[in-house]
Amino acid sequence: MKPPPAIRRLEALLPASPRHRLALGLSLAVLVLAAATAPAVGVSRDEGVYFVAAESYGRFWAEAVRSPSRTLALADQRFAVNHEHPALAKQLYAATHAVLNGGLGLSHAQGYRFGAFLLAALLTFVLSLFGHDLAGRPGALLAPALFWLVPRHFYHAHPAALDMPVTALWLATVFAYRKSLLGRGDGRAYLRWSLATGALFGAAVAVKHNGWFLPPLLLAHWLATHSAAVRRGALAERLRAVPLAFPCMALLGPLVLLLAWPWLWHHPLERLREYFAFHLGHENYPWMYLGTLLRRPPFPVLYPYVVTALTVPAASLAAMAGGIAHSLRRLWLAVRGTGDASISDEVLLLVNALFPMALIAWPTVPHFGGVKHWLPAMPFLALLGARALATAGRRLWPARPALVTGALAALALVPAAWSVAHVHPFGTAAYNEIAGGAPGAASLGMQRQFWGDDMVAVLGAINVHAAPGAHVWYQEASVAATWAYQRDGRLRGDLVRVEGPEEADISVWQYHQEFRDKEFSTWTQFRTARPVAGTYLDEVPLVQVYARPGAWR
Amino acid sequence: MNPETPLPPHLGARYRPGMETETAPPRLRDRLRALFWPPRPRVLAGGYAALVAAMGLWGIAFQARLSSRLPSTLDWQAAASLLEREARPGDAVALSPMWAERAREVLPASIPVMALPRYAREIEDLVGVRRVWLLSLPDAPGKSGVIESDLAARASSRDEPQRLGELQVARYDLRSPTLPLAWLPDRLAGARVDLGGQPCVAGPTGAFRCPGPPWMRVAREVREIDFLPRPCLYAHPGPDPRASLSMEFPAVPMGRVLRGHTGIIGDAALDGRAPVRLVVEVDGEFLANVDEPPRKPGWHLFHLDTSRYAGRTRNLTFRVSTADAARRWFCFEAMTLP
Known about the structure:
The structure holds two protein chains of two kinds.
Chain A: H1 5-13, H2 18-37, H3 45-66, H4 71-78, H5 88-103, H6 108-148, H7 151-156, H8 163-182, H9 187-205, H10 214-225, H11 227-231, H12 235-241, H13 245-260, H14 268-280, E1 287-289, E2 292-294, H15 303-311, H16 314-335, H17 343-361, H18 378-396, H19 401-423, H20 437-444, H21 459-465, E3 471-473, H22 479-487, E4 496-498, E5 506-510, H23 516-526, E6 533-537, E7 540-547
Parallel strand pairs in A: 3-4, 3-5
Antiparallel strand pairs in A: 1-2, 5-7, 6-7
Chain B: H1 28-36, H2 41-66, H3 73-86, E1 91-96, H4 103-106, E2 113-114, E3 131-136, H5 146-153, E4 155-158, E5 162-164, E6 167-174, E7 182-183, E8 192-195, E9 198-199, E10 201-202, E11 208-209, E12 217-225, E13 228-235, E14 245-253, E15 257-264, E16 276-282, E17 285-292, E18 300-305, E19 313-322, E20 330-337
Parallel strand pairs in B: 1-2, 1-3
Antiparallel strand pairs in B: 3-6, 4-6, 5-6, 7-20, 8-9, 8-14, 10-11, 11-12, 12-13, 13-20, 14-19, 15-18, 15-20, 16-17, 16-19
């Protein structure tokens, strides 16, 4: 029996190859899951700013279409907001907001965030294809699962921020670069993947500055694994040996950045200088680490490794660590000429898995923000873990490898999925079994949370109990975040934001060791140390609400 | 070898030529070594699988048990009822682990809740506290026994702990509680405050507003010093080191000791180029200088002998000054002890 025409039309849209279909299916699953779980996630400090920026950028495009002659002047005006970060992701958020909020009536937050869900889906798609390339169908399934079933990664799928998008584009750039190297014998594929590498690199740097590390990293990879090609022969021959991906990155990267960031259309060099200067001199936010408040460099070198070891679920961590060991062994055997592994692949995977953490480990690089600053490493760790699990299955029971790999994957992923579900939506407060969960981490003196988004959990209580017109101090939740809540009707519009406990009737204290004086000042001002409401993760206080007499009904 | 040649005697009577090629049965250690070294792919895969499986099972057990290791709403209500019934003036609650601060939301407002990392006598005075109710989460991950040990060491008796689900309550009667004759932050309302001779004016909240910028005031506050809440007298020194901020407390009952602490609030404790000097006078007569050092965060103890004034009432004056007044968010407490 023939399927109905609607199904046939749908099928025609789907990719032909099973691995692409699988990757697409997983991507859609991530998209739907992220969209379904997003309303519970609060608006973080940075995200609130990105909402405002996206709105401003969206207005630019609307106005530029109406009056093209004013485009340059408008660019300066509309892109001045949050010009310390490039604009591509925020313009995507503006576009999805225009369609979903303007067109379909979804909430403003969900409209902006849909762009982030799309990039999370892109990450899933590439990760599945990459996993398939490395370890077949088990790799295609396990790599995305190992990546997403980490509470902090799952959390970062939601905000309309920049860390997950740049992670997706980092992975996509490396994937395209690898494909370009593999396609050197095939002229069209070689050109296509080289161009894709350049364009994706451009998109990465048009999202966040992490992307700038890609060309030196990939060049180091190529020189380390293809040094013979540039050591011998005439200059022209040597230059021809350089993969096309590098000139493509050199040309398309800045071009895409320039096109995607209208702020650079005026005074590009001056503004680029300002942009780099901002990030090279980024301030150090105080950060709790093993009972010490890190304020100034030099910071502990082990910080990213310890935080990773305390936040990735233990079994997933073991799978990933085993994946690194597996890759090192394959590399060792290949270098000795006794293995069938590709030296190029192993080096590529290892440098991408290890470099982002090593970068943050540098003692003068600011240490804050949990795993988000080395998030681009994590898909590669997931790939290595997925391949190691698939290999273990083949080695242990060659006749039934899927059974062994499936059992191992279940043992690794069930507790991981459990922790994701348990911690949601407090992803920035998530710690693993090794830390002892949130309680163990609090005893260890680790950073309890960041970004101010956990306030979302007390919005309901504030809406019900706050006296009409009460003055509220939201502490870590930014002006933009509280405005976003009010605009979406999640926070009463009559409540007035104030900037300290002295002026406030209600104080929403979000636990940060470095701001503890603000909580104690609230006790003084309100003449009570007794909260009227609170949010706790496994008994660990995240948010506590204080009120003056009469302000909480 | 010529069969006629006599063999060396150390080879023994049973030796026959060619026997050295026969191998002795391998020992267990050698067999195990042969099994694992050089590492074969299957052995490595087995070790890896065992590690992942063990971690996975541990993770499942951890997640399954986590909620049952932590108190329920009912447990907290039971603890609140117990303390409502049993607590009396001079009691306070100590939390173990110190982050279990839901207690402040749940327990009766009449009983102070302390969330401190240590309670040893040489670290914490516990001013005015006669009995401590230790509220602990005995099965919580990361729990340590330091707080219990500190309290046990300074207690004359301890009630048998009561288990309320996943909470445990134990009462410690302090052997020698710190009961001051006068705790000066509480006497601020009756004090005379001036900055370089210019009077500071008391406001409706009891704080004194001094001439100059808004931070020039004297107030009884709870402030963060070295990350912990300290009830103290906030007294920011004035910009002119010759014009000290003066607080005179009239008719203070004196004992043998004037004891107190000084500190700089928050991250300002990491800054500064000069100490903040606290000059202590009794009836206008110099008693001591107490210096709060710059860039040395902490709640620093001072302990002065006042035995010659013991049993009398005296005017106590504190003068605060510094050569570097930028961000000197100075706070101090002082008490007279018998």
